[in-house]
Amino acid sequence: MTAPPETLAGRHILIAEDEYLIARDMEHTLVDAGCAQVSVVPSIDACLSAAAHSRPDAVVLDLRLRDGDAGDLARQMRSNGLPVIFITGYEETAIPDDLTDLPVLAKPIPRKRLVCALVTALEARFSR
Fold first, then answer.
1. Cα–Cα distance for residue pair 107/111, rounded to 1 Å
2. In this structure, are residues 57 and 80 in contact, taking their beta carbons and an 8 Å threshold?
3. pLDDT value at position 3?
4. Which residues carry the post-translational modification 4-aspartylphosphate, per the record (predicted)?
5. Which CATH architecture has domain 12-127?
6. Which of 90, 88, 103, 109 is nearest to 25 (CA)?
7. Structure pTM?
C-alpha cells in the first residue's frame, strides 16, 4: 500500500467547475501545490468521462454544474472509492442529506483551504 500523502505531490485531481475563472484559479493552486495532473471539466457528463479515462486520486465538485445537480455524481465517485469535496456558492443546506458527511468549501475558496481539504481527504482514503 502506498503511504498516505502529506502533500499533493504527484497526485491527479479532477475538478468539475463550470465557472471558468474559479476553475482556472483552482487548477493553478493545485499545480503550485505539486499535483502531477489537474483535469478541469465543466459538466457532469465530462466529469464522468474524465474519471473513467484518467483515474484521478480525488474529485472536487461544484454542487451545481451547467447540466445539473452534482449529487448523483458525488455518490458515484464516492462509490468508486474516490474522495469527493464539494465547492459551492450556495448554503450548505443545499447539499443532499446523504452527502452531508462530505467536505464543503464555500466560494470564494481560499487556496490554502483547498489544498488542506484535499490532503485531508486523501489521508482519510489511505487510513481506511
1. 11
2. no
3. 46
4. 62
5. 3-Layer(aba) Sandwich (3.40)
6. 109
7. 0.92
Each domain of the chain, given as residue ranges in start order, spans 12-127
Amino acid 125: pLDDT: 76
Q: What is the pLDDT of residue 124?
A: 85
pLDDT of residue 4: 47
Long-range Cβ contact pairs of 94-103 (< 8 A, separation 24 or more): 94/63, 94/64, 95/63, 95/71, 96/71, 99/71, 99/74, 99/75, 102/74, 102/78
For position 2, what pLDDT does the model report? 47
pLDDT digits (tens, 9 = 90+) for 111-121: 999 999 999 99
Amino acid at 9: A
